[in-house]
Amino acid sequence: MYWVRRSAIVLAVLLCLSFIAWSVPRILDPTSKDAEKRAKDQRWVASSPYFLDRQLCRWISLCGIHHLRKDPASHGYDWEDDEDYNDDLSGELRRTRAWDEDVAAPSGKRNVLQRRRVLKEVPDYVYRYAPLVHLYSGEEFWPSDIREHLEHMTVYQDSTVHNSTDWSLHNLGQLNKLNGMVTLHSNDDVESRPPWLHSHNNIPEPFEDDPDTGGSPPARRPNNEDLSNREHSTWYDTNKDHPVHRLSDPRKYGSSFDRSRRNRYLTKNPLEERGHKPDSDGYSRAPAVLVLVDKGEGVVDAFWFFFYSYNLGQTVFGMRFGNHVGDWEHFMIRFQDGKPRGVFLSEHEAGQSYVWDALEKSSTGRPIIYSAVGSHAMYPQAGDHPYVLPFKMLKDVTDKGPLWDPGLNNYAYHYDYTLEKDVEESSTRRSPSLVAAANNPQAPTSWFHYTGRWGDEVYALSDLRQWRLFGQYHYTTGPTGPKFKSLDRKQLCKKEKCLVGYELDPKRSWRD
């Protein structure tokens, strides 16, 4: 009887462990997996040379536990003493356009599409309300230049080196002709922490005066009311296929944005143009990417994309999860007739949306946002931001570190997503869906259409750098580029169900 009881206890424990191993990965990653993904996962598990490791991975989701070790953000490298890396002369800021070195000499002949292309300015209101980004004070991986990132990468096709010519921002889109999974793979072992991964030379220049002071506090309004009960139109749910609808009689509320103000916002003032201007306050050598998307009827989405060469994952009980090479984050502002109405902040696989008045502002009325340490997820407040796991075991952290002004250095574009519909990629007669803005007419566009990944493919289980516990990888695959961040979205969020906040809530989850 004693052995029966002990056997029952052991069996119950094993069943509990099996249930935990089955359920936890699904809780942490609720996305469904098709047959192709399951087959790929089986191949990943089979890459381990050890029988016990494969069985532990299959049955209780403990993969590569013999690889577990500390993964510090930095190895103590003194980048300031590296003369090769410190290439700024006499401490001067290098403000040349990052694509100039790649531009071929003009040929005198232009194709039909180039001759027909009409360059559009970036509306003044976009730069007037450009975000100010607080990077984390203890950050180790700073904003990066996508051109410099490419210099340290090799193209891989289905985990095999693709021998080809040099790739640049001007021809990267040609990789879409390759079959299979295409990735940009680091030429260096990222765990050796090469200097280009940190991008220390791109730390923003400090502001002489604190732009945080004098700003208006965020509006305090309840969050639980439906948008249709509060807004005068459906600006929060529109694109060219779904026009804006007025929800109330305009005579009841009066004009919220009169014609004279609208003209003032839409008129470009060359003296106030911010792109590539030599202003040291908040300037970073790493260009941001500004993509303007016209949604029709006066609604424009301004997507500010920020690139980092490395995403450092967070730690749970000293174990780090979620590292990957290449990291794209974004902040979107939705304008209606030149007036900012709402915003979206990208955070991991989703993000948060707020009405414009909810955000913290600078003394000049610009939104102030925060980049989390390591992951670079975007948040509207400084502090701790728990996600996924309970008891704050996994959290992002933000603070009032160096302030970055992406309006000072950026690639600016206009994007028309309707030109992507029902058109084959091989067509050469179609109008370009992405056009450089007038303030940077030579800005490259090919890189934007690249469908592959901007970093290494997930490392195999046989790789000493890799482990996976309950579905969470130490190293994941690098991200896709800005084109694949739902630029055609109707709502502020990327997902269909979009909750828009009217006040900042530190307890709000990025899944909301």
Briefly say what this structure is.
This protein is α+β, with helices and mostly antiparallel strands and 512 residues long. The protein has helices spanning 2-28, 35-46, 51-60, 112-116, 124-128, 146-150, 195-198, 250-253, 259-266; strands at residues 62-63, 132-134, 153-157, 160-161, 182-186, 288-296, 299-311, 314-316, 319-321, 324-336, 339-347, 350-355, 368-371, 378-379, 383-386, 395-398, 403-404, 410-415, 434-436, 468-469, 472-473, 500-501. Among the domains are: 2-67; 119-143 and 199-444 and 486-501, no CATH class.
Describe this structure in words.
With 512 residues, the chain is α+β, with helices and mostly antiparallel strands. Among the domains are: 2-67; 119-143 and 199-444 and 486-501, no CATH class. The chain is built from 9 helices and 22 strands. The strands form 6 sheets. The chain has an 8-stranded mixed β-sheet. It is globular and about 80 Å long. The termini are far apart. Residues 87-98, 103-110, 249-279 and 425-429 have low confidence and may be disordered.
